[in-house]
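Much of what follows relies on a compact textual record of a protein's fold. Each token is a code from a learned vocabulary of local backbone shapes. The record below shows the convention in full.
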Amino acid sequence: METCCLGDKMNSNVTSDSVQRGKLLIHIAENGGSCELDCDASTLVEGVQQFIESMAGIPFNDQLLLCLDMKLESHEHLSAYKLPSDDQEVFCFNKARLQANAPPPPPELVEIINIAEPQPPSSSNNPHPLDDAVDPALKALPSYERQFRYHYHCGDAIYRRTAVKFDNCQKLLREQKVQERAIEIARHNLDYFFRILNQNYMDFLKCYSQQYRIHSDLLVNFSRDIDKLRSCKLIPSLQSSSRQCLLDLVKEDNLRKCRDNCNTSHKQFENKVSQFKHVFGRLKQDVEDLFSSKASLPIKDLELMIREHLRYISEQRSIMQSLSKDVSTVKKLVDDCLTCQLSASLRPHDAVSALGPMYDVHEKNHLPRMRACDLSISDLLDFCQNKKNEMNNFVHSYMQKIAFIQHMIKDVRLQFNAFSEALKRQDALFEGLRLVRGLGAAYRACLAEVVRRKASMKIYMGMAGQLAEKLAAKRETEVRRREEFLKAQGPYIPRDILASMGLFDIPSQCDVNMVPFDTNLLDIDIADIDRYAPEYLIALPFKSEKAGTPRSLFSVSNDSSRSSEVEANAMEHQKFESPELLEGCELVEIAGTSKMEVENAKLKAELASAIAMICSLSPELEYESLDDSKVDSLLKNAAEKTAEALQLKDEYVKHLKSDLRQKEMQCESYEKRIQELELKLSDQYMQGHKFPGDDVATCSGKADDCKSEISVHKEADMPCVSSEPMDEVSCTSNLGQAKFGTSPQMTSRPQEGVDENMTDSSGIINPHIDSSMMESPCEELPVGAKDHNDKMVEQFAVPTSNTAADSIAEPLSVLPAEPAAKPSHEIKGDSNLLMKLQSSVEDKTNQLAETESRLKSAMEEVARLGRELEISRKLLNESQMNCAHLENCLHEAREEAQTHLCAADRRASEYSALRASALKMHSLFERLKSCVTSPGGVAGFADSLRSLSQSLANSANEKEDDGAAEFHACIKVLADRVGILSRQRAELLDKYSKAEAASKHLAKELEEKKELVKTLYTKHQLEKLANKEKISFCRFEVHEIAAFVLNSAGHYEAISRNCPNYYLSAESVALFTDHLPGQPAYIIGQIVHIERQIVKSPPAPVRPEQNYRGDQVDNLTSDTVTTRMTLNSGSTSNPYGLPIGCEYFVVTVAMLPDTTIHSPPPS
């Protein structure tokens, strides 16, 4: 990975303090290379492209930069894409490689530095002081040291070579990972654009399918719509000589021509859409195929393989540590020997004997193991290189496919605009047919609007009259208030002052006048709508045509206009039905109009408004589509609401049961309380109304005579009391009245012949006592009687208790019926007695008042408890009804549970039968399994199957089910087939043995033929070489073959007829004699260079060294041969013993392939 700095000169006016710098990681998709660019947010994308061109060699115009789903534009800054960022990386794609005719990528080349192993050590090159030691053990120690060092250096060379190869493997893995991420980026980019295209396509199909259904319906039902318009007559007031029905409002001939044009256009557009569907389907299939394709070897497998091979590096490292330790050990021994510091127990022979096994371990284990590890890493490198080449080819083909699909996506996107315009043209073309379909509905809506306006006018006028009445009533109230004010304040303020204040003015009359409107409406009613415009004119769509209008880029403006009209009508309908507008006509009769008429007018207006709204709905907007997700959501919501309602019902039942128990307990407590109060009252009245024995006897003796008076008194003045103590009290009081000769009617005035202060107390106490003990309120008594009785009690202060009556019964009984003269002392005694009686009566009166107050409070408590008891009874009744309902539900639940129980029993029986069948089949399969696993091979398997089939056939009966019978049949067929296969297997084995013998015979013959062909081919090649490579004897030129013979002087001279003095150069001689123990008798080679020289007179010639080794000998190959002969005319020495001035030639030759050099036999 390479790093470069950029951005300092891209934007010089931005300081480094205000812009944060960072590193931008760039990946090359075609080869997986990576590089880092040091830049900032103000750097232009153009600068990044120039950096990539300089580093990767991709031309500027061929670069495509992607970061996630974003494409980087050249004129933008990196800040527009939130770059540079540590978690974002940029991928560069080569557009030239995306072309269909682009060549495949070249093979991946891995540069490996060849680290050669050192030469074996030699004592002559590296002498040691111990080499001259007398002791052989000491002499062997330096040799071991040199060998151990040699082993260490060999291991180090192998280890470094292996490490370089392993680094290359990791580099190839990183590049493949980069290529994999680049493919994912390209896939995501393609998937993003394809999803947008697919959504547009789905919206188009929805819009087209809706339009297709509507237009098909218009074309199919055109004749029916025409007949409907022809059959619907206009209202007589609208008819004329040229207009009798609805069809006369349009031109039928023009409509039929329009229908033919629409039919033709409809079919053509359908064909175009079908072709477009086919193109898009092919594009979608290509995209799916592209997304499903993967590389041949997953990157994870290769990464795992590299991790597994990491153990070889660890093993080599451990071996190197062992070698280093051994070198240190032998060096220490040698140093100790040199310094004579060996211990007495360790002698040189012991050290040598210890180093011998270590040497064997090095030679036989360590170095071979390191070479084996190096070979494994080399194989891994070859494998990674092959996979890298496969990945390069895969990326190349994959990106070409993506480029092709993107080109197709662009073509399809361009077609969407054309189809959108075509949809609009289709809608405009079908406007005439829409006119035919909507004419009847519009006519019916108009009639309904007439009826609605008439009803609305009536309601409107009635509301105006009601408003006038309300204002008049308010005016009268204001006038009365002003008159009362003047009447109250007028006597104090002069009239002129009041007039000056303006207080004599009165409100003026309010006249509500309405200008007549809607006078030209047709005289029709709600019933005339169906008469003149039947309902079949609306032409609602079928259920299958219920589809909503998709709100997409293909929505037609006509639909939006219709939807706006429908919404406007709905708003008007809602305004008309608003409760504020009709508030006044609900309860009050409107001026001159009854409440029933106002209600009828309101209903007519609502019905007419609903009819007009239904007619205004276009077929396209009649229903809204419900897809599967909406249906599922509705069902789910309904199920949740049902479960919630059932739960609430159960909770409410529990609540009712708890309330019922509480009310029952409360009623029981009320009943106990009432019984206690009744007992207390009865005890109190029994204690207060005890009579003496004679009075009781008198009362009982005269009871029959007083029945009539008692009944009259009860009917006239007292209500009945149900309790027995109350009856006794009433009886006692009435008997007293009869005894004193009084009646209930006379209780309100003084009795004649008696003192005006002495009246019968029984006539006063009974009404008050009975009225206090009544269950019904005392307000039922006559008001005058009640007030009169209260006045009598206050006036005379007569005691009302029965004890007072008892106390005065005896004195009153002894009074004479007529007045008589009495003595004065008797009169005084009577006066004293009267005073005592009066004081006693006052005491008893006070006690009676207290008792009466307590009784009233008790009766109020009884009344309250009675009311609560009534409420409790009602709650009890409701609870009983709820309990009855719950019992019904419980009964239904029991029946349902019984049904479920029967179903469960039936399923249990079915399960038992199935379980028995399953157990039987399990036993059969166990027998089959035992047959399959039986020993004996194929023949034993066939015999066991045959015996199983026979046993199943013998044990078969008529009661077996169909499954067992089918299993028996299958086993029988399987046994037959296995028998056939076993026989065929035996036959095939026999044939195979024969074929194998024949194959061995043929192989032997083939080997013989191969040897013969090889011999013939060798002979042919030798003959061909002899014909092609002929030795030249006449003249010598470059590329000719020459033969040189060793002469007596030890020089190799060319064999020629008329070309003397051609000698072989010393370099050529060294080339041929390097690997031979002696000089060969002749040398044959190909001439690569000829040098012309002349013998001069200077010193004796110097012979070339036989042991000369030139470094350029290895470079004399056929590829670097001299292409022309160089003639150097110059003086030189005389190495070949030629006369002065003689011309000779030095020839340089190269070895011929497959040439055997023969050396002379030793003499």
About this structure: The mean pLDDT is 74. The first strand starts at residue 2 and ends at 5. DSSP finds 23 helices and twelve strands in the chain. The longest helix spans residues 824-932.
